[in-house]
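Teaching assistant here, posting this on the class forum so everyone can see the example we discussed in section. The complex has two components, and the goal was to see what a joint structure prediction looks like when all of them are supplied at once.
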Amino acid sequence: MAMTLDRTRPLFIRLLLLVLIVLVPPVAWVTIDAMAEFSQGLIPEMDKKAETIGRDLEASIERAVNFGIPLDKLEGMGEFFSPVLAANPEIRYLAVTDRKGNVLFMQGIDKASIESFYTSADFGEVDHAHKSILGPFIDMAQPLVTKAGRVGQVHVGTDQDYVRERLMEIAIDLAVVTLVALLIAVEILLFVVTFNITGPMRVVGTVIDKVRRGDFGFMAGVTSDDEVGRFVHGFNGAIRYADTLFRRLEAYLDEVKSAHFDPGVVEQVRDIESRVKFLFRFARTGQPETVNEHQATDIRLPLFLFVFAEEISRSFMPLYIRDLYAPIPGLSPEMVIGLPIALFMLVIALASPSAAMLANRVGARRVFLIGLVPATIGFVMSALAMSVYDLILWRMATALGYAFITMACQGYIAQVSHQQKRAQGLGVYVGAVLTASVCGTGFGGVLAERVGYRTTFWVAAILTIVTAVLIYRLLDSAQPNAETAAPRKREFLRLLRNWRFSVLVAFAAIPSKIALTGFLFFLVPLTLSQNPNIDLGDMARIMMAYPISVVLMSPLVARFADHVGWKAGLVAVGGLIGGAALVLPFFWEPVVVIPVSIWLLGISQGLSASPQLAMIPDLCWTECRIMGQTNVLAFLRLAERVGSFAGPLLAACFIPAYGYNGAIIALGVVVAGLASVFALLSFAYHAGPHIETEWGE
Amino acid sequence: MRRLASLAVMLCALFLGPMTGGAWAAEPAAKPYRIYMALWRGWEDAAQGFKDYFANQGIPVELIIRDAGQDKEKLKEFVAEAKSLQVDLVFTWGTTVTEEMLGRYDDPDKQSHITKIPAVFAIVSQPLGGVVPSLVSSGRNITGTTYLVPMETQVNLIQSYRPLKRLGMVFNPLERNSQVAVEQLTSIGHSMGFDLVALPVDVAEGKPRPASIALKVAELKAARVDFIYIPPDTFLNINRDLLTQAALDHGIPTFAAAENPVVTSKAMFGGVYRYYTVGQLTAYKAEQILVHKMAPGDIPIDAPKRLSVLINMPVVRQLGLFPPMKLLGLAEVIDRAEGKEIKP
């Protein structure tokens, strides 16, 4: 259901292909070119660094030797070398050799692998740094000269692969940025095309449809000034001309009717008049009515940009919080780090119902604009946050904005798509959010690595401002009317008394959210940051796997679910896969297996999310009839946020006891446990009294 | 551009010059603070550091310098003189001077001690439980500095030179400092896994016998100690050449808790706060009292932040026991063969 194809999808794919063809070859070409330049520049830089380090070591060693310590009797060289190796990942070994090239000290690699080279090499009497290639290493030898003359060499060995690895990393970063640029370009193109061309065309189409049926009472409500606008203007002119002609005809007929003597002629004219009125319809007031057709895609780009802004901080949020850590009495440090994430979710959950109601009352456009105020303040102040205390506040402000904006978009889509199919509109929403999630997560990681966390928040703030301008300028202030009032709270309680619904919430919807926020949003960045080889960009790429796998899985699953109809089973299988994904680190090295876990989690979410929603009409069709299906679904969304809130806190509870990996596994056990309960109970879904009892209530 | 910058600097100098000059001239309290300095064994680095601090800070002081020449009797005269001169502050050097002139914290007799005039002390090995009840506050009109490196830090330093299984020590049983050191080292040895072999020097007629030092070192050699620890002990400080030479003869490395055995004798290395730095820190506390009018009781008693590792290179060479590179990088190396002290 979630990914049911919306009408713009073929257009989206065509545009994607177009952008791919136009954008990728030049970017690839420039990239390859730049990489060559870069690698040429990087090598001398690395040599310079190796030389500098070599000279520092040389100075210390020469000082010691000048104090009368024989070169081969230097003490504690291991502890002397280790910090240098630790601080410079590209340096693989450090060594000291005597005049003949015998290795006296070596740290980093086994000396057997390299000693034969030194003894055979002639370092001669060169008095400057000497570079040579030693298998996989670049060896920078620096002569050691003391009062007694030349005593030996100090060697700094850099890894030849290091350059290649760096370049690979940059290439991957560029690929991510290209992908993001691609998706953004497609979003913008899609917006431009639908907003300026296909949208107006559809309106014209609607009007032409009416004209074909003889109804000249409508004009297309398009005001743009471009070709499309002029075309529509001309078209409207034609309608207005037809209208004027009709008025003139009417006036002439009236004149004939009132002035002619021959009753036969009058009768004939009256006959003609009624025939014309039967065949054609004209506006009663003399002014054709304007047709404005709102469509779900109007809001797609603003929604995309805003979610993009929020997702930018996804991959590093826990790390940023950890940097700003300050103790909160009574809470463990892990708890404090989890708190802003949990509270973010809580605020969304608490604010969403009121936001939805407000969107119904004052219109989506206004609620969207209202929501952008706390969101922008939240981003700006998050960039300036001084400690975790105020960061919590700013994140809650952003959450408030997030709730307003997402509810505004959902409201807008619900309102405009009641003429069309609701599911298509929802497809637009989910599509925008997932694309933004892919882009935001990936782009945010690359950005944070290059310019730091704080600047990244500034970028988010700028994006929200752009969003505000878009909404303000483009979304027209005349809004479609709300359809129904939201049901009262008591009716929701009635929903919880339906055990099938409660089971779905407690054992399927909530655990999947626990896994998402507790594992992906909270534990993954913290766990991965423990590995020094993984930078922020890598982390973001690993996390991008989630939205990507959801994007890939959902449509397949949606089709499969419709085909098979075994929805509860899919939900159960999805939940179990999600739990199992988190238990994987128990068996394998976390760094290796976490990407797999994330993929699996995406698959699990893709498997269970759509069927969860699709089950609702079957599980509680009485309630759907009373409250409206939309409201039941909204309540499911609200209830599952309990899991979003609990996820990070639960994970934070596990960390002190089991460590980061242990916490992932423990979370997996919890999720798998809840999912198995659902699996067992889902067998009972078809058994026992069902509709009868519900009728009886 | 550069010309413009220099012009700006000149203009600033023109404006600021008279202003600061004016400020100095306008200060009526050009009357120097009078400080009575009571020393134990002459002018040395701590006293120099104390004096230099005031000069560097531009604080006018008049120093009244008295040296007891290690004669306890003279200290009574000093107390009377300081009182009659009505000085602004008293500076006392060493445990004896401090305890005699300022009194122990539980016995500050008004007649024989200085109680009304604020005082700062330096080079007191164990002020805690002696002249003050707590290092946070003296509870009376004095404050000061400590100069001994915490025992654990000293032991870690020895360990960082060479792993330690058995630590030797010769000490004067009549000095409280040394007894405290023995107790501390014994308990640290228990937790860090080394044995302490502590031998008191022979005492005859109430006085320690210097002649017994070499014998004790020979006994330590027989006990196969890895290191000899030289406590901050006055008797051993005086006889430091006897002790360090004996250790060197037996090929045992020595670690000193005070700078003299390393700098002016043949101890191999030491971890100390330099007397000069301690003197400067003491002067800083005097400034707090005199210039900033803080109550001495509110000023905590502490040691300088920066530890000095001293390595005596001729001794190292003679023993052939070379320091680890990391330690050498941090250390101030004393290499008198070259007639100079080389700082890192």
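For the discussion questions: Residues 234 and 240 of chain A are 10 Å apart (CA to CA). Residues 295-485 of chain A form a domain with the Growth Hormone; Chain: A; fold (CATH 1.20.1250.20). Think about how each of these relates to the inputs above.
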